[in-house]
């Protein structure tokens, strides 16, 4: 590309209709490096007119793409997978610089991103309707077709930009749809680069458009009458607004929203596995994961021992420069998120919870201006405390003590959310009771946050609806058409 999203470029332009363009307003915004708090790049700020241009470009491209052959879609997605694999270090580095994701997580992220692309490439050739016998009189043949829904407005958060962009773009293209992607203003750089790689792979111009901007751009996309579906990942509060905006043209919506996930440790658990597993269920990605296991229920018999081991483990987690391969936790993604997380830590102490580790800003001297918070573990937490009820989105873990299995299932479900849950036990009866009793889209047993392209992921209750990954995900991008054909040949019998 003539104008790539390298960190040395001056302004990163919008990608609309296969071209890099400034915004209609000429406005830009600064995206920051959270490790240093310093400006990283200037990015064109999309507004209503730019979103409209992107939707029109997507609609034009869709009118041809919807008739593309399954093999063509598969071939292009596989080319995109090869290109992203070739450039993966640079893409991961963009996320490291732009939102603080530790480069140490690159290999796991690479496996997930490339796996998603190749999985959806395979599904592109496996979309089909059904031949369905009917009970009508006469010689009538009936079947269904699966057809792409149209233009997809994809609105993403900042906590995992690279994975989120692929998770939206790949299934939409595999289904025969076009995409307008609105990445979060805090971390738009890897999404812009993915848009460029789509063009390099030969994906027709206009099928993938990238319009970084603020809430007004997201609202314009959700409201636009030319958008047939919105795929949104983000907060429950914004998700409600997306649903309201979708009512104007009854566009389809899928939502992956917030969480306050319970993670349950029984007294028979293997503590050598459960302690680090439970810690990183809350601290991975600096706690910036919707399904993070931030409500840790520990059975009373082992509570004191577990809390001591947990706090000791938290102190060993290396917080620092995310470009250092030894770093486990980088900074929070923005100054606003840093302020939010530290205010919750102060609130937890004010409510009477006891900080047994963390509870302070932590960084090497050379990173004094970065948005670093050490892994924080609170004991003495009750269910009604804000730190136990509200999504913090930072490395803050609340430990709650329970006695019986019926009690912990009831308390685990006492939340408006239902995205993820965990259980640590050697007793299969405990495991089965929790997996069946907890109201959650995913339940992990003796592990946490494992994901696979073939396994659906999504929420219950106010954690959203619809699923990402798996065959179910493709249904989010398809319409079902029923076809009836009456033959002139008389029916038998």
Give a structural overview.
The radius of gyration is 24 Å and the shape is globular. It folds into two domains: 11-257 and 459-480, Aldehyde Dehydrogenase, Chain A, domain 1, CATH 3.40.605.10; 262-445, Aldehyde Dehydrogenase, Chain A, domain 2 (3-Layer(aba) Sandwich), CATH 3.40.309. The protein has 15 helices and 20 strands. Helix 2 (70-86) packs antiparallel against helix 5 (161-175) and helix 9 packs across helix 10 (300-316). It has 493 residues and is α/β, with parallel strands linked by helices. It has helices spanning 48-65, 70-86, 88-99, 106-123, 161-175, 189-200, 215-223, 236-246, 271-283, 300-316, 335-350, 386-389, 405-412, 428-437, 470-475; strands spanning 11-12, 14-16, 19-21, 28-33, 38-44, 140-148, 151-155, 178-182, 208-210, 229-233, 252-256, 262-265, 295-299, 354-357, 376-379, 396-402, 420-424, 442-445, 464-465, 478-486. The strands form five sheets. It has a seven-stranded mixed sheet, with helices on both faces. Strands 9-8-7-10-11-19 form a six-stranded mixed sheet, sandwiched between helices. The longest helix has 18 residues, at 48-65. The mean pLDDT is 94. The N and C termini lie far apart (66 Å).
CATH-assigned fold name of the largest domain: Aldehyde Dehydrogenase, Chain A, domain 1
Assign a percent range to the helix content. 25-40%
CATH superfamily of the largest domain: Aldehyde Dehydrogenase, Chain A, domain 1
Strand composition percent: 15-25%
Structural class: alpha/beta
Which CATH C-level class of the largest domain is it?
Answer: Alpha Beta
The overall pLDDT average reads: 94
Spatial order of the strands forming the largest sheet? 14-15-16-13-12-17-18
Radius of gyration: 24 Å
Taken together, the total number of domains comes to: 2
Task: Give the assembly state of these chains.
Answer: single chain
* N-C termini distance: 66 Å
């Amino acid at each position: 590309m003539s104008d790539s999203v390298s960190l040395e470029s001056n302004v990163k332009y919008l990608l609309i209709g296969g071209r890099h363009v400034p915004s209609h307003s000429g406005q830009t915004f600064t995206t920051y490096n959270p490790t240093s708090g310093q400006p990283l790049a200037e990015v064109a700020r999309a507004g209503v007119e730019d979103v409209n241009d992107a939707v029109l470009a997507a609609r034009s491209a869709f009118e041809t793409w919807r008739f593309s052959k399954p093999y063509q879609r598969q071939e292009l997605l596989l080319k995109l997978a090869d290109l992203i694999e070739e450039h993966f270090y640079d893409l991961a580095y963009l996320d490291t610089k732009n939102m603080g994701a530790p480069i140490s997580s690159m290999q796991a992220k690479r496996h997930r991103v490339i796996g998603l692309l190749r999985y959806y490439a395979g599904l592109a050739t496996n979309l089909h309707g059904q031949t369905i016998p009917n009970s009508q009189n006469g010689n009538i043949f009936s079947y269904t077709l699966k057809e792409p829904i149209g233009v997809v407005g994809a609105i993403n958060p900042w906590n995992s930009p690279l994975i989120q962009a692929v998770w939206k773009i790949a299934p939409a293209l595999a289904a025969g749809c076009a995409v307008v992607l609105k990445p979060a203003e805090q971390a738009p750089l890897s999404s812009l680069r993915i848009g460029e790689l789509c063009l390099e792979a030969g994906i027709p111009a206009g099928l993938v458009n990238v319009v970084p901007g603020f809430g007004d751009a997201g609202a314009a996309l959700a409201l636009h009458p030319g958008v047939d579906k919105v795929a949104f990942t983000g907060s429950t509060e914004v998700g409600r607004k997306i649903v309201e905006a979708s009512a104007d043209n009854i566009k389809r919506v899928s939502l992956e929203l917030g969480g306050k996930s319970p993670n349950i440790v029984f007294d028979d658990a293997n503590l050598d596995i459960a302690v680090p597993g439970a810690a990183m269920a809350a601290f991975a990605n600096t706690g910036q994961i919707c399904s993070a296991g931030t409500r840790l229920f520990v059975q009373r018999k082992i509570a004191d021992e577990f809390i001591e081991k947990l706090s000791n483990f938290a102190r060993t987690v290396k917080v620092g420069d995310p470009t250092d391969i030894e770093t486990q936790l980088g900074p929070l993604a923005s100054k606003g998120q840093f302020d939010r997380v530290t205010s919750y830590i102060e609130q937890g102490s004010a409510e009477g919870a006891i900080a047994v580790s963390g509870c302070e800003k932590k960084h090497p001297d050379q990173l004094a201006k970065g948005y670093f918070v050490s892994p924080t573990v609170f004991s003495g937490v009750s269910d009604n405390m804000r730190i136990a009820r509200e999504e913090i989105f930072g490395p803050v873990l609340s430990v709650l003590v329970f006695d019986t299995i019926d009690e912990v299932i009831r308390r685990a479900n006492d939340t408006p959310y239902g995205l993820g849950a965990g259980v640590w036990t050697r007793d299969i009866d405990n495991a089965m009771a929790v997996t069946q009793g907890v109201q959650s889209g995913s339940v992990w047993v003796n592990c946490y946050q494992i994901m696979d392209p073939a396994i659906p992921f999504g929420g219950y209750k106010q954690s959203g609806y619809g699923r990402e990954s798996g065959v179910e995900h493709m249904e989010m991008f398809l319409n079902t058409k029923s076809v009836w054909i009456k033959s002139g040949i008389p029916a038998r019998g």
